[in-house]
């Protein structure tokens, strides 16, 4: 017996890019972002947001986070207010928000990866 | 003197495609009151910080300025209804910056959010335009227009007004010059 569709919360996938000169492991990034969101939203807000980082690629510095449609704005604000990771200056650029993970990947991440490849070729 | 572009990195694929600050052809300058006169004559947009915008008697300085940056900062802000009325009469805008929120944490940031919310509610009542900017001093402090709009909404603005705060209002300021 699955969870009835009417009671399921609608998900939103936030595509983001890390801006930092320092190199961090995936786990460090995930923990820092989660901690920031937890600090901003509080425990109840965090539970409402059902926040999770779906994946993060340390090489391309691109990732996707998951939340609910009601808390989407707050989570974006929480991510926006991340000033540093492990004491080193960093920022997170939200590339866009989508309702499905596939759309988030194709619409926001693939373009960024292509742009990055172009930049590398131009160099 | 401290120069920087107030930027909201604009990209064509962003939901908010408005020009925002990203197409500004002038530097936005934050100055001390002594320097505003010459900058204003040079046709630059002149903003002063909250502490510089008041004289000894806590009255808004009579200088040619375009806006006041973060009037809810520092802690005991004297900005009230009367001051916002003066700001409106002098065609000033209130600039709320992201960098202030980035530089604080925990309870300090919570207090800042409360003050910003109160100020925005009052500015809305007094019809003083609000601008949201990154005020980035470092590239990593820059955020996308979408993120700035979300910050505005979190601070109590409607989605429409938050979008205007990064697009129409700064553009109107530029046209005024």
How would you explain this protein's 3D organization?
In chain A, 36% of the residues are buried. Chain A is globular and about 50 Å long. By secondary structure, chain A is of the alpha+beta class. Chain A has a four-stranded antiparallel β-sheet, with helices on both faces. Chain A has helices spanning 26-49, 72-80, 101-122, and strands at 11-19, 52-57, 62-68, 84-85, 88-89, 91-98. Chain A is built from three helices and six strands; from the N terminus they run βαββαβββα. In chain A, helix 1 runs antiparallel to helix 2. Chain B has one domain (3-175): TIM Barrel (Alpha-Beta Barrel), CATH 3.20.20.140. Chain A binds chain B through residues 19-20, 39, 73-74, 76-77, 79-81, 83, 89-91, 93-97, 111, and chain B through 9, 13-15, 98, 101-103, 105-106, 109, 138-144, 146-148, 150-151, 153-154.
Topology:
The complex is a heterodimer of chains A (123) and B (177).
Chain A: E1 11-19, H1 26-49, E2 52-57, E3 62-68, H2 72-80, E4 84-85, E5 88-89, E6 91-98, H3 101-122
Antiparallel strand pairs in A: 1-3, 1-6, 2-3, 4-5
Chain B: E1 2-4, E2 28-30, H1 33-41, E3 45-49, E4 67-69, H2 81-89, E5 93-97, H3 98-102, H4 106-126, E6 130-133, H5 145-154, H6 159-166, H7 168-176
Parallel strand pairs in B: 2-3, 3-4, 4-5, 5-6
Antiparallel strand pairs in B: 1-2
Helix pairs in contact in B: 5-6
